[in-house]
Design a protein that fits this description.
The protein is α+β, with helices and mostly antiparallel strands. The chain has helices spanning 16-23, 118-139; strands at 6-12, 33-36, 44-49, 53-63, 67-77, 90-98, 101-109. The chain has a single domain (6-139), classed as Alpha-D-Glucose-1,6-Bisphosphate, Chain A, domain 4 (2-Layer Sandwich). It starts with 5 loop residues before the first strand and ends in a 13-residue tail after the last helix.
């Protein structure tokens, strides 16, 4: 059975541990405002993007160089009818070595096509992971968005 959870992946030249360390510096690659910490088990952080997105994440799994999992414990998405669609979902980074490169498989478990935010969230995650996170891992510098993320 094929999962409907949103997933995307990137490959970088850096080692799995370098990718893991970069992912844990969330405020350096996820455009928005942050409070809290994300690099230790059971830590919590809050993410905000403008006045349209709020979410609170708890770090529930950390396997150095291999895996990072955040549980979204609270959310408020101002651009959809069910404003708490993200609550109870998980953000997962699976890190592996594939043919001499590091693959980061990103999954937002529970973000499925029946969600009203699926299309917008899919587009945002695709840009954030494929451009912002990838740029941060490979250069150590944050990606500068050329335009605001657009939500319909």
């Amino acid at each position: 059975m094929q999962t409907q959870d949103f997933t995307t992946s990137i490959e970088v030249e850096q080692s799995p541990m370098e990718a893991y360390n970069a992912i844990n510096k969330v405020s350096s690659w996820w455009p928005g405002e942050f409070e809290g910490n994300s690099d230790k088990l059971n830590e919590e952080f809050i993410y905000r993007y403008q006045d349209m997105h709020y979410s609170k994440q708890k770090v529930v799994e950390l396997v150095p160089g291999k895996k990072i999992v955040w549980l979204i414990t609270d959310s408020l998405l101002d651009f959809v009818e069910n404003k708490t669609e993200w609550t109870g979902t998980k953000v997962i980074f699976d890190i592996s070595n594939v043919n001499g490169k590091t693959k980061i498989q990103f999954t937002h478990e529970g973000l499925i096509p029946k969600f009203q935010c699926y299309k917008d969230c899919r587009n945002a995650w695709t840009a954030i992971i494929g451009k912002s996170l990838s740029t941060f891992i490979t250069t150590g510098k944050a990606w500068q968005m050329q335009e605001e993320l657009v939500f319909e």
